[in-house]
Amino acid sequence: MKAEILATGDEIRTGALVDSNSAHIADHLIQSGLVVTRHHTVGDDLDELVAIMTEISGRADMAVVTGGLGPTQDDLTAVAAARAAGCDLYENALALETVERFFRERGRPMSPSNRKQALLPQGATVLDNPVGTAAGFELKIGKCRFFFVPGVPYEMKRMLAEQVLPRIAASLGADRRYSQVQTLSTFGLPESAVGELVSGLPDAFPMIKVGLRAKFPEIQVRLYCDSQDAEEGRKHLAAAADWVVEKVGAPVFSTRDQSMAEAVSELLAQQKVTLSVAESCTGGLICNWLTNVAGASDYFLMGAVTYANSAKIKLLGVRPETLARVGAVDEATAREMAEGVRRAAGADFGLSTTGIAGPSGGSAEKPVGTVCIGLATADRTIARRYTFNFGRRLMNKRIFATAGLNLLRRGLRHDPAL
Amino acid sequence: MKAEILATGDEIRTGALVDSNSAHIADHLIQSGLVVTRHHTVGDDLDELVAIMTEISGRADMAVVTGGLGPTQDDLTAVAAARAAGCDLYENALALETVERFFRERGRPMSPSNRKQALLPQGATVLDNPVGTAAGFELKIGKCRFFFVPGVPYEMKRMLAEQVLPRIAASLGADRRYSQVQTLSTFGLPESAVGELVSGLPDAFPMIKVGLRAKFPEIQVRLYCDSQDAEEGRKHLAAAADWVVEKVGAPVFSTRDQSMAEAVSELLAQQKVTLSVAESCTGGLICNWLTNVAGASDYFLMGAVTYANSAKIKLLGVRPETLARVGAVDEATAREMAEGVRRAAGADFGLSTTGIAGPSGGSAEKPVGTVCIGLATADRTIARRYTFNFGRRLMNKRIFATAGLNLLRRGLRHDPAL
Predict the structure, then answer these.
(1) Cα dihedral sign, A252-A256-A260-A266
(2) Closest C-alpha to B149, from B82, B64, B217
(3) Which of A99, A108, A154, A305 has its CA 20 to 30 A from that of B279?
């Protein structure tokens, strides 16, 4: 069954807003067993809306449309859908209840313009919106089932999951196929090397399709399984994931689409150990990533962003002689920073970064892209130097921070190669 | 003149990747005076590509297509364009030179598959790619001028600016209109209040269209001017921007689409003063934002991410009695943190945040969303408490960090209301 996705609204059409809804919807429709062939965007223009809905209805079996369900003059989706389907609008009691409930629950007065949100095409089925004023609706236009949901991402996501996907699953019935995806995340190998390592997968697992995806600075291995039995599909995926982990080895840091910070945080929490971090070139990015994970206060004690040498000396106890002898960017400095921040916080692990993110500050010996990472525990301190050449400051910060967390991950997993 | 945008590739079609290219292209085409009517996405499927290019050629005067110019079997854009235009492919010497130059400059061998990237439709004009292997090209299909560029964002952006937009401007000639945009960024007022303050703008400046855009946690005022004379348009915009600054006042933190961190960094650099930051609930986000700005080491001395109370005491000299008396989230604690981090670094300004980002940790007296911000200088220390109710952890971190930087900005500007 073919599906298309339509995002509406002048903010998206004009580029004032990036449309992230369509990617989310595509991913979930495909996992429901539909073939997504096209996405479109049009603005708040009645003729364009009617035209594109009519075109989609001639090509696709299902369609999801976002946006244009609000109370303003610009919100034209229901009018356009009625016109494309050749029917009239009427005030739907259930849709009116959705709007009224929203205001009642918040103790706010409902403005007359919100009443417009209850006007739906004849023959439409209401899709409940538990978190906003705009009810969605389902409507057949030509041979195609259209699902209309709001453009606000969290309203859309909730309604897609609770209203749209179950209806699609029910209508597929015995034809339902389960397209499942599992994402393994790797760091430290180029895309070509990962591709080489997993090149035998199609032979070993004929049921599985494999794709690589660069999500800087990670390389993800995406495993796809299309099957009529969801449980069987999951088993195939799990076996293939195990195979990938064995082939690729230590560079795999998650088999569940976690970020590096999430994977490391999980290890810290499981092992009930604590961490403190000293950042120079990464400028707080590691701390920020770690504290994006709820519950970070259980294991994350403290971070020090020691940009200036004086801060490295004063806060971390880095020796002025070391800085004078080898400079700020060196394994010896990274080692003293890691030890110093571990000691200052009384943490089990101390992690440090010092490097040159650019655009200036590089030299022939230490070009932009050079980073030294230190990791200190009660027993030992190690340091590593890497040189990355992605040029841009923000990319360098990202790859430096990921490399730092990866060294910590290897330490937490007692990687014998460390 | 009508323009459409086509993003190609299975990664975008399947939702593995969010397409941010189309928004960037739409914004720039509109500023060049084109009317962007539709965006589309299709996968790496020859029939779909040919079909949609043919459809676009029947509707639009211009089109920009991203993706599918690489060396692999999946890269079908040139083949599809040739088929839609009804012409053959041939090896273009200039496109071949683009590929060869890329490998030559990097001292890497060129693989035979890259030679495929020089195969272009007959009648195509090469668009030089100074930063990648894939040359772009321009081709007329039906009545529509198509511009084909790579999907890699930084290659696309560079080629759009250097190759595509100048060609569009040249072809518009005397019909060329200049659609210019100026973005003013505000923080601290709800969208409705900003809307109220600028509601008189259309009367005062009939040449200017105004739009509000919520870019959490900022509210942007976007001024649009469409004119035949670029210089005249700029003058109108500048006058309208001055008017907005006068009406909205202190909440305007940039008239040039800067981030809050960029605006603050500019003030720090101009005033040649230094800063140190103590972050609790924002967990390194302020430091990370500040160090995303190149040159941060000139004014940013140090940051301390003091999640644990022990770190607040040890690193910042917060008094245990204060913590025992009022807790970690309080103006008094924020004040001592700001003073402590200022003193530790010997900086001109000390900034601190302490609050509850959630999801847990809230109480009736201090709900999730509460933040206290401290700002210390040699002369005085101030602290403010705010309660935001956006619920989610990452949103809270963003608004806390922005509120912190905003207090610093007001301090740097000697805001008499502080």
Answers:
(1) negative
(2) B64
(3) A154
End-to-end Cα distance, chain A: 51
- Rounded to whole angstroms, the Cα distance separating A41 from A5 reads 9
Residues of A with Cβ-Cβ distance to B304 under 8 angstroms? 302-305, 315
* Dist. CA B283–CA A289, nearest whole Å: 8
Tokens of A212: 């690589």
Residue-wise pLDDT tens digits, A27-72? 999 988 899 999 999 999 999 999 999 999 999 999 999 999 988 7
Q: Do B16 and A37 touch (CB under 8 A)?
A: no
- In angstroms, what separates the C-alpha of B416 from chain A's closest C-alpha? 31
**Mutation for A interface: B12, B14, B66, most A CBs within 10 A:** B14
What's the ipTM?
0.85
Assign A377 a pLDDT band (cuts: 50, 70, 90). very high
Q: Which of B302, B318, B329, B353 to mutate to test the interface with A (most CBs of A within 10 A)?
A: B302
B-chain CB neighbours of A315 within 8 Å are 302, 304, 315, 344
Best residue in B27, B34, B38 for a mutation probing chain A (most A CBs within 10 Å) = B38
User: Using N-to-C axis directions, what is the helix angle for B260-271 and B393-412, rounded to 10°?
Assistant: 30
CA-CA distances (angstroms) from residue B324 to A297, B320, B334, B357, B370? 19, 6, 14, 21, 19
Q: What is the mean pLDDT of residues B6-12?
A: 94
Cβ–Cβ under 8 Å, residues A227 and A178: yes
Residues of B in contact with A345 (CB under 8 A): 308, 310-311, 314
Q: Does B17 sit within 8 Å of A36, measured CB to CB?
A: no
Chain B, nearest residue to A211 by Cα? B11
Give the residue among B109, B93, B104, B99 at the shortest CA–CA distance from B71: B99
- Residues whose CB falls within 8 Å of the CB of residue A190, separated by 6 or more in sequence, listed in order: A219
Q: Structure tokens of B98?
A: 């683009």
A294 vs B393: CB contact, 8 Å cut-off? yes
Measure CA of the first residue to CA of the last residue in chain B; give whole Å. Answer: 51
Alpha helices (H) along A253-318:
260-271, 285-291, 309-316
Q: pTM of the predicted model, to two decimals?
A: 0.85
Phi, psi angle pair for A353, to nearest 5°: -135, 140
Contacts A40 to B, Cβ<8 Å: 38-41
Q: Quick check: A181 pLDDT over 90?
A: no
Give chain B positions within 8 Å (CB) of A106: none
Contacts of A397 in chain B (CB under 8 A): 288, 291-292
> In angstroms, rounded to a whole number, what is the distance separating the alpha carbons of residues B85 and B79?
10
Q: Tens digit of pLDDT for each residue in A82-104?
A: 999 999 999 999 999 988 998 88
Residue pairs spanning A and B at CB distance below 8 A: 230
- Indicate the pLDDT class of residue A173, thresholds 50, 70 and 90: confident
Whole-number Å distance between alpha carbons of B139 and B135: 13
Maximum CA extent, chain B: 81
**B301: which chain A residues are within 8 Å (Cβ-Cβ)?**
307-308, 310-311
- State both tokens at A75: 């919100």
pLDDT tens digits for range A277-329: 999 999 999 999 999 999 999 999 999 999 889 999 999 999 999 999 999 99
Q: Determine contact, residues A180/A234, Cβ cutoff 8 Å.
A: yes
Q: Which of B13, B25, B287 sits opposite A36 (nearest CB)?
A: B13
CA distance A318 to A336: 5
| CA dist B96 → B93, B100, B120, B136, B152 (Å) | 5, 6, 10, 11, 19
Measured CA to CA, the distance from residue A347 to residue B49 in angstroms comes to 57
